[in-house]
Amino acid sequence: MNPAKPPKQLWLSKLPFYDGIRNRGSNLGPGSRGFLKSLSIVTVCFGVSKVFSSVATVIVARYLGKFSFGEAQIILLMSQVLSMGMLFGLHVSLMRYGSGKENPAPEVSTSIYFAGFGAVVFAGLTWLLREPLGRWLDLDDYKIGWAINLGVLFTAYAIFTSVYQALGLFKQRGIIEIVFAFLLLPGLAAGHLLTGGGYETLLIAYAIAYAVSMPFLLWRVRHMLSPKHLFADNTREMLTYGGFSVLSNIGFILTFVIQPMQINWAQGEAQVGVFRLYCASSINMATFATGIFYVVFFPKVSASLDRLGVWRRMTRAWFKAAVPLLTLFAGVQAVTIWLAGSDYPFLWSQIALFSIASTLITIQATYGQILAAQGVQGMRWGLALSSLSGAVNFTLTYLLVPRFGLTGAILALIANFAITLVATLALRDRLLKPGHPDDQSPVLTA
Q1: Residues 81, 257: contact at Cβ < 8 Å?
Q2: Contacts of 233 (CB under 8 A, 6+ apart)
Q3: Cα(242)–Cα(111) distance, rounded to whole angstroms?
Q4: Cα 211 to the chain's mean position, in Å?
Q5: pLDDT, tens digit, 9 for 90 and up, residues 168-210
Q6: How many Å apart are CA 286 and CA 427, to the nearest integer?
Q7: What is the pTM of this model?
Q8: What is the dihedral of CA 434, 251, 123, 375, to 10 degrees?
Q9: Are 98 and 104 in contact (CB under 8 A)?
């Protein structure tokens, strides 16, 4: 009699890590399963939205050409800076202090009303100071007006989406992201019809996407907007935390806003367009990936008692994921630059350098989220790290871009992210202590 044949194995079972995933998955607690489920939902939704936004980016970059594309990018970057001041870090404070609460209405109302006040103040001040700002940034009143309007719209979008994250409504948050990204495509068509192909095409697309998404965002939080909820018990701490958060954006501003302007001053708007397209398929993908993780991870790690344990598990994960991630960044860039057309030079050396920078910033950002969850103390160190990052990037860009062009800019980014990552890792033992032995933290526990 022939012996019975062993059951056929799936090809996946031949992989060296299959048994570990299978066994560890069966032992996960309900908190970890919930975390992984939420992360999976957000990843799928944000992935779909990224497909739409990437298609829109390639279309508009090819359609406008590097000159007009670069011009539009400068205005979008200015709107981001304005929104940082308008928000005053309150979208981050809301997730830090509103997550896990049975009734976060006071934190929600406090964040929304103070952000609204900030939007009015910063919009007014920017318009009053438009002449000196225009001379410094080489922008006329019309472009500054566009930046202000987009800044207000982005502020509203950011504060309301943070409410969904604080409430744990990750599926709804992901759906809103898909709606926003999808709206960019008809927005581009509307921009073309209204402008005939000017740089405003991209700006109109963003304005439409923000404006149409707003009713969906307002519906879920409408009952929390009553003034009776204003001023939470921890309002002062929320404002302090938000203040450190907004100050910590100095590194972001000097790296992602001032650096393109430095390139503009040294090389012209066409080079800004090329640089921003490479960034869109690498650095922006990195910030997008960390944004996906942040949506679920930051509210969870803020409620965790064992952040040192989370840090250690994160380190083990990065030893396995870093090289595949770098390869992914290179592949996405190659496809994007090829599709954008001959106006944008296809250089493997640039692709390799941008991939390295993107991997470094992704790793640093995940550790930075753990430090930020330490409250005001973590944000103080975050401010120091951000200042270091910005100073390194600004100085090296100033020194390298006039001599090496865009290669100098990306070398400045690599040095910046590498130094900041090393400094972040050095803070682990200073800020993080072992968690309570009875901790039931829902973050990366096994």
Answers
A1: yes
A2: 106
A3: 10
A4: 20
A5: 777 888 888 888 889 999 999 999 898 887 889 999 999 999 9
A6: 23
A7: 0.69
A8: 10
A9: yes
